[in-house]
Specification:
The chain has 203 residues and is an alpha+beta fold. The chain contains one helix and nine strands. The longest helix has 55 residues. It holds the Pfam family DUF1541.
Length: 203
């Protein structure tokens, strides 16, 4: 009887220890699952914030104000109030959209590269910044490689930033309003597109 009792006790202890071990493993697995879920939630939140922040930097609409010394075009290809099809893809949903011409101006337009004042990623070959939006630029046109400070805020972090000229065009630029083809909100008084980036609408 003593042997049987001792064996029973030993078996009970082994089972109890096994149950404890199983419980601890289950708790550990639950803790790991919870940590994985929290990590996924944190990553999703960061991605959402990055997406919102990225869109926050894009200020494609404007008040419609232009520099005082900017000259209206005398005989633009597209008259104010007329419509045209956008052939440029400065932003998603822009190419192929129908635009209303809000203004036409004769100037020198520059494609520029710069690093935003707010610490964003470097921007290369941004189109367009016009001569009148540069701070004390001297006579137009500036040559590729020359630099000037931008006095405009087409995009967040642009105002007051030094830009390097990539290319220059003496042309007519247009301020336009359009609704993106991807279903985004209407973009009002977008600056700028050139005549070469517009085509006539089909009658």
């Amino acid at each position: 009887m003593q042997k049987i009792t001792a064996g029973s006790i030993l078996l009970t202890v082994v089972l109890a220890l096994g149950a404890c071990g199983s419980g601890e493993e289950t708790e550990n697995m639950m803790d790991e699952d919870m940590m994985d879920e929290e990590t996924m939630e944190d990553n999703m939140s960061e991605q959402e914030m990055m997406g919102e922040d990225s869109e926050g930097h894009m200020n494609h609409s404007s008040s419609g104000e232009v520099p005082e010394d900017l000259q209206e075009a005398e005989s633009p290809e597209f008259e104010e109030g007329s419509r045209a099809i956008i052939e440029a893809g400065h932003m998603e949903g822009m190419e192929g959209a129908e635009a209303v011409i809000e203004g036409a101006y004769d100037t020198t337009a520059y494609a520029v590269s710069y690093t935003p004042e707010n610490g964003g990623d470097p921007v290369e070959n941004h189109k367009w910044v016009i001569h009148e939006e540069l701070e004390d630029p001297g006579e137009a046109p500036l040559q590729p490689g020359e630099t000037a400070v931008m006095n405009t805020d087409h995009m967040e972090g642009m105002m007051g930033t030094e830009a390097e000229v990539d290319s220059a065009e003496n042309t007519t630029v247009y301020m336009i309003t359009f609704t993106p083809t991807n279903g985004g909100e209407e973009v009002s008084n977008h600056k700028w597109v050139t005549g070469a980036e517009l085509s006539e609408t089909e009658e």
